[in-house]
Fold:
Amino acid sequence: MARPDEGKTEAERQLTLHVGLVCVVATAAAVVALYQLVHLDLTGGDLTRSIALAFTAALGVRINWRIRIRATVHAISWSETAIVLGLAVAPAPLVVLTTGTGVAIALLSMKPSPLKTAFGIAKSMLLAAGGGVALHTLGWSPQDTDLRHVIGMIGLAYVVAVVLDELLTLPVIAMATGTPLRRLFWDDLGLRLTSALARFLLIAVTLVILQADPRLLLAVPPLVLSLHLLYSNQVKSRTEQQAWQRLARTTDALNVVDLDKVLTTAVTQATELFSADEVEIELRDAGRTVRGASGTITYDGPAGTPSEIEGTVLPARLEGHDRTADVGMLRLRFRGPVRLNEREQYTLRTFASALCTAVRNAQAYAELARVADEHAHAASHDALTGLANRRQLLDRGTEQLDARHAEGVTALVLIDLNHFKEVNDTLGHAAGDQVLMQVADRLRAAARDEDLVARLGGDEFAVLMRALPAPAIAAHRAETLLGALHEPLDVDGMRISVEASGGIAAAPASGGMPELLRRADVAMYQAKRAGQRTATYAPTRDTADLRRLTLGGELPRAVADHEFTVNFQPLVDLGSGEVTGAEALARWHHPRHGVIDPLRFIEAVERSGMLPAFAEAILDQALVAAVTWRTAGFDLPVSVNVSPRSLLDARFPGAVLARLQAHDFPPDRLVLELTETLTLSQLDVVDRVLSRLRDSGIRLALDDFGTGYSSLSLLSRIPVHELKIDRSFVTAMESSAEAAAVIRSTLDLGRSLDLAVVAEGVESEPQRRALWSLGCAAGQGHLFARPLPAGALLAALQRGSGGRPGTLATPLHDTGSVIRLSTPGRRQPARNRSTGLPHLPA
Ligand code: C2E
Ligand code: CA
Ligand code: CA
Structure:
């Protein structure tokens, strides 16, 4: 048998105690009243009046309005008005007993809980007794007929009753609902005071009527009713207004990107908003449930564990306005029976929808961060061996070379396996991979802790050494590294000996990592040609030293003499083969050295101070070409590469706009391709330059996407229109699952941010198909065309493929075998005001 006390909370016990006490005092009052009544001479009029009084008191209880706090509904009634009026017309002991009876009849017919009934009856009797004692103390007798005196006395009795009412009722509500007493007192104090005043006026008017002609009393009930309606309307509109304000505040507070914060805020705010005993949020996909009560989280864990609260559950689906996304459920729990009114139901739906949006935003944000991490890792590591990749080598090397007070010498050893192709061809790729992994292990073991071992691609490895006491030490260490490869490898029981050549170079005075790599490369070929295991770079034997090209005022002359020209490589719709744009790629026609690739001179141009003139020359040629194509009937957007350094130049946007105007070329047909660097993207001026370009309608593309550490951080600062998947991923996609995964996640990202995605370096038909089936719409690469002079591209466009001008490849759907997943649109993404990120569709 469970004891009746069991399961009761401390507050419940207190409540029972309080009500019990009130009842005891009320019973005592009733006994005293009964005793006095016996010694009173009651007239027939007294009796009639008390019956009328009991009836009025009962009516006063029935006409009430209700306020729900959690599962408890509180009815606020007119009974004390009736009681005080009674005191004016009948002896106090009689009033005590008759109100008690009237209220008891009313309450019993309404069937609230026993506790509430007892409290209601006891309270009404105590109010009557309190008022009566006050009148008695003041020496009042019902025979008093001076109206002003009567009103004054009764007014005082009313004040006593009101104060008593507050003193008795507020603690009960506080205990029943767990609301702080102080808050209950201040909430609606103004409203309660006005209401008390209005009731007093009603009392006064009734007293006047009683003296003039008691028959006029018939007018009192309509008066009460209209006062009641007026007051309850006022209460209602006031509560509604507060509820709206609270809803607005709550949904505002949900506007954060951290999922945990969203959930905590939602749970704690919703308990307040709906005055619920418990609020629960269940996220369907994550299988996670969060519960909270009175401002704290009580549960956060896997879904499925039952709540401890029994009673009413009001569920609301977490879905967007459009009802499409459905992320889970919101549940309000109450310890007793509760029904929400219409406004509360609407609030619940609105809240659920705001919560749904907040959850989805937070999830999308987390996804962005995850993709960023993934990219960062894939971007800096070689998938097969786990060694650093070329990018990482370049970055670490650059850091090392830039470090001002670095001790000692930095050197690089480039290691290339000889005859590796034969291993691959005769034993298969799997064996080839084994060889590469074992070579990687040996190099890692032979290198020092402070060295960085990297795989540059294929069978090429590199070891970056730092803080060497002298350049000559590098040669010695290189011998150790290559010596580690001397012992034959064991691949599936076969012993395979690999031979390798090493090229050593010490840090150059200028030129940075690209130059260091180039020198090590030169040295390695010397070693191979000479049949030696290693060779060290010697400037005297380097015939193609780029330095000489860029020194001695060559660049200004090159700009002045228009030695820089532009070739164009078309962007092609992978499905239809249609040309959808062209990228301008710079070339240097050197009078003695012939055509030089941009990667060999861009760095020099950037450092030379000639960058603005160079960039303008390239842009000019790109625009001239685009205008020519347009005149010939091919309206193609043209893409131009932008040096990170140009973005540091506040005059750059102005210069671009001036060129556009000079050629009367629409800004939205120009695409600027950006490669980002971490440090650059942190500068305010870069943000300003990019915003200005963007705001003037120019489209922005993120070049070499996937290789940069900060691709996503840049993306979150300046929304671009287009992503270009780096060529290295396209090249590797057929053999490397990781490369394919990067492509897929880039396409996902493009889809969710509504960006166009272009794949670079498409060299084969299988690559084109694979990209297309992943949902990539556009590509660029040797499969379609190499970079061509403007006129040659125009001729190719006019010729077309298979007699279709404007195309460079046969459509894919002709084969009927490839189904395209989806078409990334080219719409401009709207931005989320609070996060600065584009809005993420579900
Ligand atoms: P990018 O912007 O990534 O340009 C694509 C490069 O890939 C071009 O090299 C292009 O010729 C090459 N390419 C295109 N399709 C294929 C393919 O299927 N296979 C292979 N293996 N390569 C392909 P390019 O012209 O040597 O340009 C190299 C880089 O120099 C460009 O990379 C770009 O970052 C930079 N660059 C070119 N022109 C300019 C310029 O005007 N200004 C600036 N700041 N940089 C430029
Ligand atoms: Ca580019
Ligand atoms: Ca690129």
